[in-house]
Design goal:
The chain is 24% helix and 35% strand. By secondary structure, it is of the alpha+beta class. The protein has one domain (6-106). A hairpin with a 4-residue loop joins strand 2 (44-49) and strand 3. It is globular and about 50 Å long.
């Protein structure tokens, strides 16, 4: 059962997973992990392809944060940065609601030029 009436909307999201740059193996890891959950309240609401990578909109912030940590353990040459942005105040519970952004960036090897 969804947490709220908003969560039943197919466009609803609480977190954005940003892959910079796009990588097939990482994207498949995310898709397979969400399918494995077998939970109706956790889904990908949309995927945006950008010039620099890809944005994946996920319905559960808590799940997206834990997925970021799983991905960091699975892909050692990538780094994770988790940030949050104020969205609104819940009218029912009078709590601040935030949207999370999980940036998953590939480490680039920097070459030092020898002069």
């Amino acid at each position: 059962m969804p947490r709220s009436t908003f969560a039943s909307n197919p466009k609803y999201f609480e977190a954005i997973m940003q892959l910079r740059p796009y990588d097939d193996a990482v994207f498949e890891f995310i898709e397979n992990d969400i399918k494995r959950m077998k939970n109706d309240s956790i889904f990908i609401s949309r995927v945006e392809k950008l010039k620099t990578g890809i944005d994946i909109y996920i319905s559960s912030q808590k799940y997206a944060r834990s997925l970021g940590q799983k991905m960091q353990r699975a892909f050692r040459d990538w780094t994770v940065l988790i940030t949050k942005k104020f969205q609104t105040v819940s009218r029912l519970q009078s709590k601040d609601l935030y949207r999370a952004t999980i940036l998953f960036r590939k480490n680039e090897e920097r070459r030092v030029s020898e002069d």
